[in-house]
Write a structure and sequence with these properties.
Helix content: 40-55%
Mean pLDDT: 95
Structural class: alpha/beta
CATH superfamily: Alpha/Beta hydrolase fold, catalytic domain
Strand order of the largest sheet: 1-2-4-3-5-6-7-8
CATH topology: Rossmann fold
Distance between the termini: 24 Å
Radius of gyration: 17 Å
Order of helices and strands: EEEHEHEHEHHHHHEHEHH
Low-confidence stretches: none
Number of strands: 8
Number of helices: 11
Shape: globular
Number of domains: 1
CATH architecture: 3-Layer(aba) Sandwich
Length: 276
């Protein structure tokens, strides 16, 4: 069951205040869930209840995505700017050095937080940053196409398409291996989240020069990659393992780029194995 979405006003010492939307459920050691670019915290709904049986689970809408407003003024969306905002949000929400799980952009952020020893453990699902220049151009081109499509389609057409498995595949088949398993309401909501994301363009622009090239020592790290990821190809997981030799690399059979809906039980088990 989804928890109510709440809002927190974050006031970092050296940056303008900003607001984040979040859901909180469960009790125990905190696990923070970070979504990918153009998505929202509801992407984690298939697994958050499983995790909440043994842990406090906090799902965040990243700044400029979902219900979180854009950052104030001309605040940048690059890693060095966003990471301190996330750690300030963790502190405000009472989650000091949480376990962090991220998908895509969220996976990259989770690994960077681990490298800075700001978290207890990292589970990164198809994290960004392990691409070649050609693979990055391909992924960014696909994302721009999805964004343009979400903006161009009238909402009644999105609602109509979402009623059928074929229509859900046309809307979300790039990120899910089994888009027909996603509910019609969820597909409409995530298409709307992509369409209305004020942080999309700035975040994508900031990612043009990003590559993750450093080890993450002294923090347990698991990298999971869907065998049917069509956006960030599974071979990038091998590069991630070479970059972070101590990481556990886990194949997610039959899963796409956003594996939480394709196989919630498997994803939850991978997360809990890392946390333990």
């Amino acid at each position: 069951m989804a928890a109510p979405v709440s809002f927190a006003r974050i006031t970092p010492e050296d940056r303008p205040p900003f607001t984040v939307a979040y859901e909180r459920k469960g009790a125990g050691e905190p696990i923070v869930l970070l979504h990918g670019i153009g998505h929202h915290l509801q992407a984690w709904h298939p697994v958050s209840d499983i995790l909440a049986a043994s842990h406090e689970v906090i799902s965040l809408d990243l700044p400029g995505f979902g219900a979180s407003p854009a950052l104030p003024g001309d605040s940048p969306y690059d890693l060095d700017s966003v990471l301190p905002l996330l750690t300030a949000a963790f502190t405000e929400l009472g989650a000091h050095r949480p376990h962090v799980v991220g998908n895509s952009l969220g996976g990259l952020l989770a690994l960077e937080l681990g490298r800075r020893r700001a978290v207890r453990s990292v589970t990164a699902l198809s994290p960004a940053g392990f691409w070649t220049p050609a693979e990055r151009r391909y992924a960014f081109g696909v994302l721009r196409g999805m964004y343009a499509g979400a903006q161009a389609l009238p909402e009644p057409m999105v609602e109509s398409l979402a009623r059928s498995a074929l229509g859900r595949a046309s809307l979300t088949g790039t990120i899910y291996a089994h888009p027909g398993r996603r509910s019609a309401d969820a597909v409409v909501a995530e298409t709307r989240a992509l369409r209305d994301a004020p942080g999309f363009a700035s975040t994508l622009a900031a990612g043009r020069g990003v590559r993750f090239t450093d080890d993450v020592p002294d923090v347990p790290v698991t990298i999971g990659w869907g065998s049917r990821d069509r956006l960030l190809l599974p071979r990038q997981g091998i590069r991630a393992k070479h970059t972070i030799p101590g990481a556990r690399l886990v194949r997610l059979p039959g899963c796409g780029h956003v594996p939480m809906n394709d196989d919630p039980a498997l994803v939850a088990r991978v997360v809990l194995d890392t946390v333990r």
